[in-house]
Amino acid sequence: MIKKLLFILSILFLFSSCASDSTGEFPLWVSSDWKNSFPDSEYLSSRGISSSAELSKTEALSQIARYINTSVNSNLLTSVRSINKGGEIDESTLIQNDVAVSSQVSLFGVEFTEPYYFKSEKKWYCVAYINRNKAWEQYVPKIEDAKNSFYGFYNEAQGENEPIFVIGYYKKALEKGKDFLTALEYGRLIHPAKEKQYSSDRNLLARIPSLIESEKQQVNIAIKIEGDYNEIIKTSLEKAFKNAGFSVSQKGIYSANVLVKHNSDGKEPLAVFPSIDLTISGVEKRTVYSYKERISERTVAFSLESAQKKSYPKLASKIEDTLPRELKEFTESN
């Protein structure tokens, strides 16, 4: 009888051991003040609670990813707005697509606690955490790569004499600045104290739009035109240059040499197919840009003047539509 009782007690003891909390001392990070185990000054952390050990781990990782994603994108938007204060650059040119944080979290060196089963709640607990110092050492090369790409184009701009090319380099620097800014926002989230060493780089990046605007003010274009009719084409060129962000002046440092041809065919009635051939020469008297356009649609009239009067507005409209866009593309690709 005694042996039987001892046997039953031993079975109950084994059962109670199996049904209790996970083996080992009760982790502090399971309690309500779990952040004391992962202070924000040393860690980025998030806790997952779920019905299984694996799901608690997944939930912890998901929460830390969402936090990083939300924080980085919010900070990026703030940074972009601060940059746009320095110049009239459309904000949409700087905002990146949603950052794929979840796929990059592993780059920070995410670690996990051993999932813990809390019997009284019938839940598993797990903490995903990132050691700030370790993650910074791992991540800082990405910041440096983005920084070098940004400064590559910035330095090219500093060494260029032609304002129209300087604008192009600055625009490329601004484009690379998006990646640099994103990298810095990740860095600031990982280790705010260490990211501060890049504050001067941030300030320089914020000045790029105003530097672009300053260079644009130097691109004064003097139009020298042949073959126009009642200044129809000249007026369209002035509008096109201004829409591209440049000013027009009789004594501009840039010279736009323009030849307009009516390209007439036949006699009374005659058909014309007006065209424009434009070249812009810069401060060093070299050709920096060329543009050609032609109206393929025939305009028929009994006199050349009448044909020009009808057809030149068509060419002017096409110039105003295509030239500003092509000029912007040109400055961004050089």
Overview of the molecule:
The protein has helices spanning 2-19, 53-84, 101-104, 132-158, 163-190, 192-195, 199-218, 232-243, 304-333; strands at residues 43-50, 111-112, 116-118, 123-131, 220-226, 247-248, 254-261, 270-272, 275-281, 287-294, 299-301. The chain has 334 residues and is of the alpha+beta class. It is elongated and about 105 Å long.
* Oligomeric description of these chains: single chain
Structural class: alpha+beta
Q: What spatial form do the alpha-carbon principal axes imply?
A: elongated
- Tally of extended strands? 11
What percent strand? Answer: 15-25%
Summarize the structure.
The chain is α+β, with helices and mostly antiparallel strands and 334 residues long. It contains 9 helices and 11 strands.
List keywords for this structure.
single chain, alpha+beta, disordered N terminus, 4-stranded antiparallel β-sheet, 52% helix, 334 residues, 5-stranded mixed β-sheet, elongated
Topology:
Layout: H1 2-19, E1 43-50, H2 53-84, H3 101-104, E2 111-112, E3 116-118, E4 123-131, H4 132-158, H5 163-190, H6 192-195, H7 199-218, E5 220-226, H8 232-243, E6 247-248, E7 254-261, E8 270-272, E9 275-281, E10 287-294, E11 299-301, H9 304-333
Parallel strand pairs: 5-6, 5-7
Antiparallel strand pairs: 1-4, 2-4, 3-4, 7-9, 8-11, 9-10
